[in-house]
């Protein structure tokens, strides 16, 4: 197992001429200051499934400073589909051990460290680990774990992302605390400044989950396709009562449907838009949610990486704050859950 020193972060480094040449296109897009922030960022990625694989590829190629990957599981045969860092001969090896050299080969300028000891995600271990990172991304874990890790990140002032897929569905949640960013000022006069500084106040996941939809109009509700967010929330509730397991049996459809409809009613969703969760959607989830599909992982992981880089660059507004992807339609929507 390779480990990382969780101590105090080093003095920020300047981009070298060689790095400037490698990242020339990005510097032209983001600016030197934004690339410098990426260069000095240490990202902690928890769990190396399909979404994380795609996200890691993109953020490493973009030129972050250091990537720390934590995963205690072994490579399984089902990981070979969406997990393109793995090969047939890797089955049975630790995921992080199998993937490390292939991640490093993407961009030798990025330091890659791996941890296969699950204790680093527990209370004191996680706090110690967080001392040396700038941002945390947790993928494909259950709601209880997400809330626990997010609460710790928020207490220690670390921006937090999470994401995952469930068959044809996927999600991204982010808690960026108080996030400052520069965005185009579309109302500015022709000869005035084209950019304006904005601040977004994010909330913890436990707060976002208390969001009520009663303040949304029928049109606003319809635009965010509420059946998909509530399908994800229903899956989280299902996991909470089944020791973290996802449904993989048509017989689970009835329980999933009851959970989803209960959540929809409690949240006050416009009944003209979504009186009940669609039965066809629930039946599909009951048999596919436990399985990774490479195209869905690629889309969700790619968008997750894009938003992480956007947050680091502080040049555009990131997701605020719950994104869901519907692979049935090939589109996604963002719901502002619990944010002021």
Automatic annotation (TrEMBL):
Entry keywords, A to Z: Nucleus, Ubl conjugation pathway
Keyword Membrane among UniProt keywords: no
GO cellular component terms, A-Z: cytoplasm; SUMO activating enzyme complex
Residue ranges occupied by any THIF-type NAD/FAD binding fold domain in the UniProt entry: 23-328
MF GO annotations: SUMO activating enzyme activity
Pathway connected to this protein: Protein modification; protein sumoylation
SUPFAM superfamilies: Activating enzymes of the ubiquitin-like proteins
Signal peptide coordinates: none
Entry keyword Cell membrane: no
InterPro entries: ThiF/MoeB/HesA, ThiF_NAD_FAD-bd, Ubiquitin-activating_enz, UBQ/SUMO-activ_enz_E1-like
Subcellular localization(s) per the UniProt record: Nucleus
Gene Ontology biological-process entries: protein sumoylation
Family: Belongs to the ubiquitin-activating E1 family.
Protein name as it appears in the record: Ubiquitin-like 1-activating enzyme E1A
Species for this entry: Polyporus arcularius HHB13444
